[in-house]
Design goal:
Layout lengths: L1 H26 L10 H5 L27 E8 L7 E11 L2 E12 L2 E14 L2 E14 L4 E17 L2 E7 L6 E2 L5 E2 L3 E10 L3 E10 L4 E12 L2 E8 L4 E9 L3 E10 L6 E10 L1
Antiparallel strand pairs: 1-2, 1-16, 2-3, 3-4, 4-5, 5-6, 6-7, 7-10, 8-9, 10-11, 11-12, 12-13, 13-14, 14-15, 15-16
């Protein structure tokens, strides 16, 4: 009996936490800008032109690897609350006809959760890289409030300008999908443009300009620096909302692992830790 009461109170507490977070972010006129991958989070979410990432099916499909097959797993806990946790997986598989990829993502818990299934394709021609993703989003609200789904289309472009310097662009939900037929809630639409620069084997710099159609422009920037051997350190920053992040990672020819933590500008929200693991062959 006591255990059942505790579980019930725990669910109520989680719901209240989600409500408070919603009020905080609404009053600041911002929207969550989470990306997949601890490396990406540690670099300030500046992913639009970020090369060599196993999470391109979520960030910019034009940058999916043409050289290696990979599988990756990711988890992040926002503000230390188990009720608002991201879990994701991604698979990239190059073929003679282009790169195909799949991604899965789940956010939330039993009273509210959002799931995404993504299927992507990428190809290149004369150094010009292009890709697209079909994204099915499905929201479930507990307590009898029901569920709804929507199918969106994302597109991405990328190209090397000079050796080590990449430019990329990414647009989400270009078909303007809506959840259900009752409330016609539109999925968020983002347009981002980014640059990345690899300074020899010492450091990688990445920066993005991102615009949500309903919210102010946000700027993101990050750096990845070689520490020793295959160990690297990272730091990043975003605006609207203002966040600071840091982390480190290890990568060799076959596998890699990354950890990161993000700090929100509102001290009430605290820290958001993340971790990922990937295999390549």
């Amino acid at each position: 009996m006591i255990r059942k009461l505790w579980q019930s109170h725990r669910k109520l507490l989680g719901f209240l936490c989600l409500t408070v977070l919603g009020i905080l972010t609404t009053t600041q006129n911002v929207r969550a800008q989470a990306v997949m991958g601890a490396r990406e989070l540690g670099m300030g979410q500046a992913t639009t032109a970020l090369p060599s990432t196993q999470w391109a099916v979520f960030s910019n499909p034009a940058l999916m690897s043409e050289d290696q097959k990979s599988v990756a797993f990711y988890a992040a806990r926002y503000f230390g609350l188990s009720e608002i946790t991201d879990m994701a997986a991604a698979l990239t598989y190059p073929t003679n006809l282009g790169v195909i990829a799949a991604g899965m993502h789940r956010y939330g818990y039993d009273l509210f959760n959002k799931s995404r299934l993504r299927l992507g394709y990428k190809n290149s021609f004369l150094g010009f890289h292009f890709g697209a993703v079909l994204n099915y989003s499905y929201i479930v609200q507990g307590g009898g409030y029901g569920s709804a789904g929507a199918l969106g289309v994302d597109v991405g472009l990328a190209a090397p300008i000079v050796s080590g310097l990449w430019i990329g662009a990414h647009a989400t939900n270009i078909n303007q999908p809506k959840y259900g037929s009752l409330n016609n809630e539109k999925l968020s639409r983002l347009l981002s443009v980014g640059l990345s620069y690899q300074l020899s084997n010492i450091a990688l710099f990445s920066t993005d300009i991102v615009k949500d159609v309903d919210f102010p422009i946000t700027y993101r920037a990050g750096v990845e620096v070689k520490v020793i051997g295959d160990l690297v350190g990272r730091a990043g920053i975003t605006t609207e909302p203002q966040t600071f992040s840091a982390g480190f990672g290890y990568r060799n020819s076959f596998w890699g692992a990354n950890v990161a933590v993000q700090r929100h500008q509102d001290s009430v929200l605290g820290y958001s830790p993340a971790i990922d693991f990937n295999l390549r062959w």
